[in-house]
Design a protein that fits this description.
Helix content of chain A: over 70%
Largest sheet of chain A: none
Largest interface: A-B, 47 and 46 residues
Number of helices of chain A: 8
Shape of chain A: elongated
Distance between the termini of chain A: 54 Å
Radius of gyration of chain A: 17 Å
Structural class of chain A: mainly alpha
Order of helices and strands of chain A: HHHHHHHH
Strand content of chain A: under 5%
Oligomer: homodimer
DNA sequence: GCGTAGGTAGAGGGATCACTCTACATCGTC
DNA sequence: GACGATGTAGAGTGATCCCTCTACCTACGC
């Protein structure tokens, strides 16, 4: 049996991703987590902690999805990354970044903001490393963010647009 | 006296922008709108309608802020637009796009999704028209979205990054 | 002077919610 | 076979929330 903590985190992540952060009640979250209310509160002592646990779990899954088993040739990596973002959106979330959504739902939480910053920084860092575009972390992050947001309205068109912007990035990288 | 409807919409917009969509109670919103509870419900018969009214108001203000009094020379317009986005974020919102935030807070609302789509489509359309980059609406939208999201973490660095990406866009636009 | 339109003030209902607590089940270990 | 750790089941509590409703006020046209 998978240990209880990750089972809870996985269930919470699914619930928040599917229904947003405002709507699901703690009892809904209990059902999604597949444990009793007492156990749920043992691992996540408040509803805010449930949000944090869900995002922490998603962070790990997102990094794996994007960066595992990338092609060796660095020129090919960028397109693959953008395609994987599109695939992630199609499978996991119909709308925007869950981390930004969590902060938007509760702008007063310092813990959420810190987690968001950490998540984005690590995505940008690993994207730059994987593509060889060191020093261009923020350019990469901007395209990735734009793709994530625009995908919900434009699907594959947004992916090809991100690829085009990414290629331009590599061109004037040499300059 | 400004008419009651816009006074309410302006107050609601400020309240949601400052405190998110989940936290403020209807009584908080009443205080922000500066009217009585009865009048508030007369113009916006449910809390969901209050969200819609606030976003409708912001839509108009955002378009004015971005597109009024742009320079005549189209080559200069793109940079001005990105700077205005940065200025908007600094003044109006510390975090992300309010429209995306509203959808994230209540993913089930069809009305919100429709409003989001309309808002983004009009921003992209007018940005393309103002810059002369017709046919590149989605590229422009992707940069604008990326800038809006990344600004909260990287401030001016995100603006200069958007400018760089925008210039690349113009270059291979000739190709 | 009076009616009407559009406003204020605020109490109250009915429902929901986050969270706690009691009582009981299961299982591996000595 | 007793025990401690870890789990389930679910009722109860106090607070909060959205929304309605009654009662009253003010400005203005005729």
């Amino acid at each position: 049996m998978t240990d209880t903590k990750t089972k809870i985190a996985a269930g919470l992540e699914q619930a928040f991703a599917a229904r947003g952060f405002a709507e699901p009640s703690v009892e809904d979250l209990r059902d999604a987590a597949g444990v009793s209310l007492r156990t749920l509160y043992k691992y996540t002592p408040s509803r805010a902690d449930m949000v944090l646990a869900a995002l922490e779990h998603r962070h790990g899954r997102y990094l794996s999805h994007l960066f595992n088993d990338l092609p060796k040739a660095q020129e090919a990596v960028l397109d693959v990354l953008f395609e994987r973002v599109g695939a992630w959106m199609a499978i996991e979330t119909s709308h925007g970044c869950l981390f930004h959504g969590a902060v938007a739902a509760d702008p007063g939480s310092e813990g959420l903001r810190a987690l968001l910053a950490r998540h984005k920084a690590e995505v940008a860092r690993r994207a730059a490393a994987a593509t060889g575009l060191d020093g261009r972390e923020i350019d990469l992050l901007l395209i990735l963010e734009g793709l994530t947001q625009a995908w919900s309205l434009h699907r594959d068109t947004a992916v090809t647009s991100a690829k085009r912007l990414g290629h331009g990035l590599r061109m004037n990288s040499a300059a």
